[in-house]
From TrEMBL:
Belongs to the annexin family. Residues 118-133 have a biased composition (Polar residues). One of its GO terms (molecular function) is calcium-dependent phospholipid binding. It comes from the Eukaryota. It comes from Artemia franciscana (Brine shrimp). One of its GO terms (cellular component) is nucleus. This is Annexin. SUPFAM superfamilies: Annexin.
Amino acid sequence: PYYNPPSQQFSQQMPMSMPSSTPSQTPQYGIPMPMSMPASAPLPSHQFNTPMPSQQFNTPMPMPMPMPASAPQSMPYSMHQQQQSNLYHTPQQFGHVQPAYPPVSHVSAAATNPCFTPPTSVVTPSKNLSSKTDSGKRPTVKPKSNFNATEDCEKLKKAMKGFGCDEKSITSILSSRSNSQRVMIAATYKSLFGKELVKELKGELSGNYEDLVVALMTPLPEYLATELNKAMKGGGTEEAVLIEILCPADELELQDIKEAYQNKFGRSLEEAIKKETSGSFCSILISILQCNRSKNEMATDEQAKQAAEQLYKAGEAKWGTEESTFIRFFANESYAGIRKTDEHYMKKTGHSLEKAIKKEFSGSLRKALKAILLVAHNKHSYFAHRIFKSVKGMGTKEKQLMRIIVTRCEIDLGNIKEQFRSKTGKPLEDTIS
C-alpha cells in the first residue's frame, strides 16, 4: 500500500556533472543533488528508472556505522578459520591442552542461563577420550538425553541409604551416562550434599565392582594417568600396561594423559617413564610421547617402497639390527604409511613386517612395535585381541578387561565386540558373564 511507482519523469537524463558555480538544485523527484559531481562519478541509479530502495518502500536508508581509524582490516579466510579452530583446540604443547571433559562451570552456564547457547562447532562432550564418535566408530555408551544431574544424585543417595547398598540402581545410572555426565553428577552431588560422591561409593562397595565404579566416575585422562602410575609403581614395571595405553593413543589423547599425569602426580609422564624403563623400550615410549606421528593419510607407493627398503637394510639385510630406524618409523609414521610400507615389505621379502619384527626384536620393544603395527591395520582388532588375552586360560585379568571396556565404551566398543566375536565365535557379553 506504500509503494509509489516511479513516474515517467524519472527517465529524464541527469547530467554527468554540474559546474561548481551552479547552485544546489532539487530535481523534480525531490532529492537534492550535491553542488558538484566529478566527471568520473557513476551514473545515478535514477537514470535507469530504478527507484532507490529506501524510496520504493518509503523507508529511510540505514546509515553505515563509522569504523574507527584503528579498526583492523579483515583477515584472510584461512587465518580466520585457524583462529576459529583455536577457540576450542589450544596449541598442542605439553601442559596447554583443553581438558577431555567439559568443566563444570560450562555446564552450570548452560543449565542456569536460558540465553546460553553452546557453540555449534563443539561436540558435547568435547575433544575427548570419551566421545570420539567418528564415522564408522560404534560406541556402546552415549550421552543420555534429557540428562538431569540432580535427579541422578538423589537416586544415588537413596541407593546408598540404610543397611546395604542397591548396586542394581547404581549400575543402571552409571552405565548409561557418559563420562562427562558422570563428572557432572559428582560435582552436583558435592553441591547438594556436601560430600564426595566417589568416597561415598567406595565406602559402600568393595572388590572389583568398587574398582569399576571408581573408574567410571573418574575423568578418563586422569584414570589412564593413574593406571600408568600404578604400572610403574613399586617393584618392577608392568610394561604391557604402558604399551596398551600409549601405543594406540592418538595425539590429542596423549596430550590429555600427559597433562593429567602432571597435574595429579607433580612430575611429567616422560620423566616417570625415563626413570622406570630403560633401553630401546624407553626410547620408543618417549618418541611416542612427542606426538609427532604424521597425519599424512595419502602416502605414495614410492615413499612406502623407500621406507620398506630402509627397514629391510636396518634389519634382516645385515648382522645386528638398527633399532633406532624401526623406532623412528613406527613412532612417527602415519598409520596409512605403515600399512602401505607393510605391503611393499611383503612384495620385497615375501613376508610381512610382523614376521621381521619377531625375527629381529625381543622383549617389550618387540611387543610395542607389534602393537603399533596391529593398531595401524585395525585398532578394533588390537583391543579385541587384548580382551581375548585377558579372559584366556585360567582366571581372568579383571584390571585389563575393565580398563579396555571403561576407556573404549564411548569410542568404539561396538566395533571391538564385533572383532571379538569374529575371532572367538562368541559374543563378548557371554564370555565375560
